[in-house]
Write a structure and sequence with these properties.
There is one protein chain. The chain is mainly beta. The protein has one domain. Helices cover 13% and strands 47% of the residues. It has one helix at residues 2-25; strands at residues 56-66, 82-100, 103-124, 127-133, 136-138, 141-153, 156-166. Strands 1, 2, 3, 4, 5, 6 and 7 form a 7-stranded antiparallel beta sheet that branches. The longest helix has 24 residues, at 2-25. The mean pLDDT is 79. Keywords: Signal.
Length: 183
């Protein structure tokens, strides 16, 4: 009987460690581009809107730019890489007076639009190939069905969110960069 328990514990431990190691290896983004709208949840560190019967509507405009793309070893690639992203995000939050684990419960949705301007050079046997794209389209919508906000003191706030990234953004497999990820 004790042997079966030890065997089950070992099996469970190896399965858990195996699943955790798989999750740790998936950390890439497509063409190094951002995949979520910048800062639409930025009311301050850990701060969310107050509880209201109608919710809060917010808008955030942010800009991201890079001219370096790196390989898996952290070395810069010589590919004339350039990426500029203008993110315009509209978000709706509804924080309630209902409490779970001592925290206020809420939910939200964010709809981002990306103006992306990307260009880079790919070396081929037939010579360099210059690729460019500049779409202005809707990106993937973020839905947070569970937000928990703890107000620990007048100046200390903590929140936890479960966020679902929905594949609703524009995607074109023939374009070097797309606002949506298609997965």
């Amino acid at each position: 009987m004790s042997h079966n328990n030890n065997s089950n514990i070992r099996r469970f431990t190896f399965l858990t460690l195996g699943l955790m190691s798989l999750a740790a290896t998936v950390q890439a983004t497509e063409n190094g581009a951002p995949t979520t709208s910048f800062g639409v949840y930025d009311f301050g560190a850990g701060i969310l809107p107050p509880s209201t019967p109608v919710g809060t509507l917010g808008m955030r405009v942010a800009f991201y730019s890079t001219n370096v793309q790196k390989d898996r070893h952290g070395r810069s690639l010589d590919n004339n890489f350039s990426l500029d992203v203008l993110s315009i995000g509209v978000a709706y939050f509804r924080m309630t007076a209902y409490r779970i684990l001592g925290a206020r419960y809420g939910y939200s949705v964010a709809v981002p639009f990306f103006q992306m301007d990307a260009s880079f050079r790919v070396q081929t046997p037939g010579g360099p190939l210059d690729l460019k794209a500049d779409p202005f389209r809707m990106a993937d919508i973020s839905v947070s069905p569970l937000i928990l906000q703890w107000d620990l003191s007048p100046n200390l706030f903590v929140n936890a969110q479960m966020q679902i990234q929905t594949p609703t953004g524009d995607y074109d497999k023939n374009r070097p960069i797309s606002p949506g990820l298609n997965h």
